[in-house]
Every structure is written in structure tokens, then in C-alpha cells.
Amino acid sequence: MCGIAGVVALGNISEKLVSSIRSLEYRGYDSCGIAVINGSGKPSVRKNIGSVEEVSEKENFLDLHGNVGIAHTRWATHGGVTKLNSHPHSSCDGLFTVVHNGIISNYISLREKLEKKGHVFVSATDTESIAHLIEENYSKLKSVEKAFTATLKALDGTYAVALLTAHEPDRIYCARKESPLILGLGVEENYIGSDFNAFIENTKSAVILDDNEYAIVTHDGYVVKRISSGEMVVKQVLEIMWDSEMAQKGGFPHYMLKEIHEQPQVVRTAMNIEEDRLMKFAEAIADKPRLYLTGVGTTFYVAQFAQYYFSAYAGVTASLASSDEFKFMANVDDDVFVLAASQSGETYDTLSALRHAKAGGAVTGAIVNVMGSSMARTVDHLILQGSGPEICVISTKAALSQMVIMARLALRLGLLNGKLTAKDVKAREKELDAVPKGIEKILNEKSGFIHTIAKEQSHIPHWLYLGRGRYYPIARESALKMKEVAYVHAEGMPSGFLKHGTIALIDDNLNCVVFMPPEEDAELYKLTLSSAEEIRARNGYVLGVMSESKSPSKHLPFSETIILPKAPPFTAPFFEMVAAQLFSYFTATTLKRNVDRPRSLAKSVTVA
Ligand code: F6R
């Protein structure tokens, strides 16, 4: 969702401010803007539609000089993508300027009341009401702090908000309710940001605001207080483990490709999660008679993948719920464990599902990539996956790491249930240890071939991704990759389901990808193969994805085959997913898509 940044320093901050929102651009990129104050006078505001690069040049951001500033990169929710709807937004007198991430649900009634009092609105956003309301409250209360907190108390919905005001030009006021906001602590210089990337180039010391807290940030300090009472809160200072280099492209043309290539390392990190932590997590799951797995988008498919592994290796039956539907279908009570996966740890739907579960008495757990994120601080049991920053809007390495961790949890659950012996667990872990090398082999030896097929087939408007058993979630996740990065219509489906209707679609405009299990997974292999045969019998195109075989059949029903390193049933799905990520990536580059910033998307979806 939108990205917020702010800098308070002694010298000119424009360059740092622009660099901050550039680093946050993956949170939203339809428009952007900055506001700065130079010692006194009204905040100077510049904004427009387009990327940070384009707008910064068009609006000469760097010509603005000031020592305090706020900035925003937008993913539109209320009001179209226009210059007027871009942030920052100002009060009528121009003395108060705000940026905001979230949704103010009572903005229409606030706007009507303020308009009756003579305030003139220029945008269609919910955010503009905040600036006018602060102005209105200031006229009565004559204190910025009081006007700010009175305004926050009047807002329904969610926000991370930052305020710059001519009345106190040496500071930023900011606050948080259900949208992330973090302070960065530098030397004679402090920062605010929607996430660490806003200021990681300058400092690794951070303070995370909790819901219903506000902060006043100056160049030499900060205070955090509760919105409800004004009471001061003592905050813990966190040292961020990521560094700024991890968030660079490192020679790759896109973050997506870089992150796909980071997967061997990411799997190694997942394999290094301590035994004790995994076991305690598994014990907490096993302690409850019922289990829900949840996530949304890619992490829903991670949850579904876990459902198959928990069942196969631990005999654990888990209910699966997309986080956005969770509260409408899940029955939670103190007999339930709810396990979520989330890269950002901020996704509104997943966070709401976890909060709903907690309120109902359930015990919660999550696999999360971002330390200090809302989810990391909400759940009772946490596994930090340590995959490093995922900058591309499309999730690749984080999802693969979560699947590996889920597979490792399945083994511990199997051990606790007596379904597996310690020897079994050791054997499967050894297979997982071989995954990084196998992925390296795919990246080094198969990328060229996958690129060629992607180029040849990039004109095809519809794709069906088919997989059975544990390959079904892989098929769905791979179809999602194709849709979101290449804008090509793709659906993931169980291959056995095809003959029950969808097979009617097979024609020259629709291609299929079939994820084959290794031959030793005999029943699954046979069944998946027969689905491929059914498509070929109707002259459909089938791209087979399968592991190397000792005696490959000459009569496989595939139009093209991507042959991957030999892998046992436990780990083969990981390799097939990597091949499909590359296929989506190369289709997207062939079609000249904006790979790292696909249209209409944003990383970290923090709104309902
Ligand atoms: C797809 C994608 C999204 C996210 C989903 C959950 O590539 O990135 O579907 O997986 O929005 O996000 P997190 O993992 O941050 O909770």
C-alpha cells in the first residue's frame, strides 16, 4: 500500500526524502509527492502522477530546500490517480500538510461537517479531511499537539499519518492505527517510514509505533505517547538485521529475477532455523485439537501447500481459510490453533484473521519475513523466516522459504504424532538440504530453455496450470505469478478436475502447464499423466514440468518438457515452482511488462 517517509535534520533533506520514497515505491506507485519546511513559513508541496523518478524530475523535487519534510508514494484507494488526489494534502490556510496510508471510513461525514464550516476541499481523497480537521481543531485548541490528537480521536478506520506544520516547523507529528509506521534514529537526524526500507541507508536503529500511539520527532529526539491519554510510552529500540545492499538489484535487470536467484540462500536460511524453535512451534500446534491454515494471495497457496504436507507427513487435518474470508467461515475458540504465513507481516486481511482468532480464544502462530511487523508482534508463536527484503511486488523467495518451513513443521508434527520416526525426519531433512543445489542447477542450466519457450508461447492469451495433490497449490501459485506479472489470464486447477468441465476450453488460444510428480510417486504420476493425455487428445498444447528420470519414456504427451534435477517426492514441488517462476518472469519480459511494479498492484496490502 502507500509508502510514507519523513526526515528531520539540521541540513537540507530533499535528497534523502526523495531517496526514501524511491525505496518505498514498491508499496504503491501511481503518484507521489513531498512537502518540506525550511525553518519557517508554510510547507512547500510538490506532487504529481507517475513514478518517483518521473515526478521528481517533472516537479523538480530536489529544488526544494528544507530541513524537515514528509513524502508519500500512493496506491489509490479513494479518488482516482490524479495530481490533486496525490499526497501530501493541505489545510485551507496551507499551514498543515499531511500524508496518510490507510482508509478513513468516516471521511464523508467529516468532509460534510467541515464543508459546512467553510473548508474547501480540492481532492476526492479521504486523507484531505485530516488536514482540514487539524486546522479546524487548531483554531479552537491553539496547540498543534492537541489539535492533532483531537483529530486522530475523530477518525474511524485505519491510518499511518504524518503531519508537517508551519506552527512548529522543526518537527514531524505522526501516528499509527492498523497501518505500519516506524521511526528511524540517526545521528542529529531522525526519520519516519512505512517500513525499514525508508531509512535503512541511513540508520539501522528503529522504533516501531504500536497501534493508537503517536510520536513527535525532531532532529535530536522523539517522544511516543498514547493517543487516548497523552501518556508517554517507553519504546524499545530495535536493531534492523537487513542492510541496504540487500535491497539493491545487484546486477540483475529486475528485483524479481534477483529474488528468484536468491532462493538457494533463502532455503539454506530456512534450513538453519533452530530445532528448538521449530519443535516448540510444532508442539503448540499439536497442543490444540483443531488447526486452521491461513494466508491470502500467494500465502494462501503456501497455506494450502502446508495442508497437503501436514496431512501426508503428520496425519494432521487442517482447515484452510483465505484470510479475507476467515472471519466469515472459521469457527474459532480455545481449541483452535491458527497458523498464518505472511512476507510483510502487515497484510490487513491476514492480520484481521489473526486478531479475530485471538479474540475468539484461539492460539495463533505465523511465519513472517519482516521482523517487528504487526503480525510478528501479534501472534503467540513466531517463526522469522529471514529471507531478506523482498522488493519486487511479486512474491517469490518469501513464498518458497515459507513452504520449506511448513514442510519442516510437518516433519516435527509427524514426529509428535508418532507417524514419523527420528530417522524419517532426518532422511527428509537431508532431502531438503539438497534443495539449494538443485535450484542453482535450474537457474544455471534451465533458464535459457525456459526463456525460449516463454518467448515462443507469449502470444497465448489463456493458460491452465494443472497439478494434483501437493502440485495443486503449486499450480495455483504459478498461475497467480503469470497473471500478476505478465497480465496473462491463467488459472490453477487440480488436473483431475479438468475433465469435469474445463476441458471444453481446450483450443488454440489456451495452453496448459502440467506439473508432474516424480515417477516414484507412482499413483500421482499416473493420474497426472492421464490428464496430460486428455489434453493432447484434443490437440491442446501441454508444457510438462517434471524431474529427470533414469529411463525417460519416449511417449510423454507433452508439446514441450522442462526437465528438472531429479528430486524425491518430498522436495520435487519446490523445483517445479522455481521453473514456473522463471516462466512467468520471461513471459513478462517478452511482453515488456513492468516486472517489479505490475499495474494495479502494491506490496504489503494494508487495507481491507
Ligand atoms: C503475490 C503476492 C500477494 C501476497 C499477499 C500476501 O505475488 O505477493 O498475493 O502474497 O498480498 O502478502 P504478505 O505475504 O505480505 O502477507
Explain what the structure shows:
This protein is of the alpha/beta class. The chain folds into three domains: 3-240, Glutamine Phosphoribosylpyrophosphate, subunit 1, domain 1; 249-433, Rossmann fold (3-Layer(aba) Sandwich), CATH 3.40.50; 446-597, 3-Layer(aba) Sandwich (Rossmann fold). The protein is 37% helix and 22% strand. The protein is built from 19 helices and 24 strands. An eight-stranded antiparallel β-sheet has the order 3-2-4-1-10-9-11-14, with helices on one face. The chain has a six-stranded antiparallel β-sheet with strand order 5-6-7-8-12-13, covered by helices on one side. A hairpin with a 5-residue loop joins strand 5 and strand 6. Helix 8 (275-286) crosses helix 13 (397-417) and helix 17 (471-486) runs parallel beside helix 19 (572-590). The longest helix is centred in the last third of the chain and has 21 residues, at 397-417. It starts with a strand and ends in an 18-residue tail after the last helix. Residues 296-299, 342-344, 347, 350, 394-395, 480, 484, 604-605 line the site of fructose -6-phosphate (F6R). Fructose -6-phosphate (F6R) binds at residues 296-299, 342-344, 347, 350, 394-395, 480, 484, 604-605.
Descriptive tags:
6-stranded antiparallel β-sheet, single chain, Rossmann fold, 8-stranded antiparallel β-sheet, binds fructose -6-phosphate, 37% helix, Glutamine Phosphoribosylpyrophosphate, subunit 1, domain 1, 608 residues, alpha/beta
